[in-house]
Amino acid sequence: MSAVASVLLESPISQRREGHVFVRRLEDWIVSLVLAGMVLIPLAEAFLRRTLRVGIPASTSIVQHAVLLVGMLGGAIAAREGRLLALSTLEQTWIPENLRPASRIFTSAVATTVTILLAVASARFVLTEREAGKFLFAPLRVWWIELALPLGFIAIALRIWWRSSESWSRRADSAVLIVAFVTVAALFPATSHLFTLLSLTVLFLASLLGVPAFVTLGGAALVLFRSLDQPIASIPIAHY
Q1: How many domains does the chain have?
Q2: pLDDT greater than 70 at residue 18
């Protein structure tokens, strides 16, 4: 009976591990294929122009959008591996070890909140682009590729939250803090000076402790755009 119970318990765990391995390999393969395409398309373009005097339609635009895919997939992979570039390592070097779990919960909550808001901003941008109805080349629409922005940020947010701790209770604490941050952002008036001050203070503390660099930059942009009552959908345009 104990052997049967052991098999039954290990089976879901092994299935989850196999699923994780499959996702990792899929992401790695997609990035590799897109990178290969970014190299091969210009080479093929140059070869065809020299030999057959023809080119590849929209080749430059294809490569540019491939860069977007690589950037977002690369960010998701970096989040998966816990290798997102930070501007500070204070959490690892100065914070006492017994306080690091709490610090980690705080920084992951800030990072996840900012990433979620960037995903929202990206989704709004994609909806605007969808209305434009542009084609990269028939039948591929531009906004299909641009979906990498919100989907990539969602994947990054989930992985930052997941890596906040190996303990489910601490992950729950981080989730509660994320909900609190999002709620405060939703309730405060857009041009509230108090909200701007509090947000920048929290972002500054989180940056000192070691949130990813894109969180510092993206978070500051979100706060400042909001304080000026500007649409946050404008932020992904620079990234795009």
Answers
A1: 1
A2: no
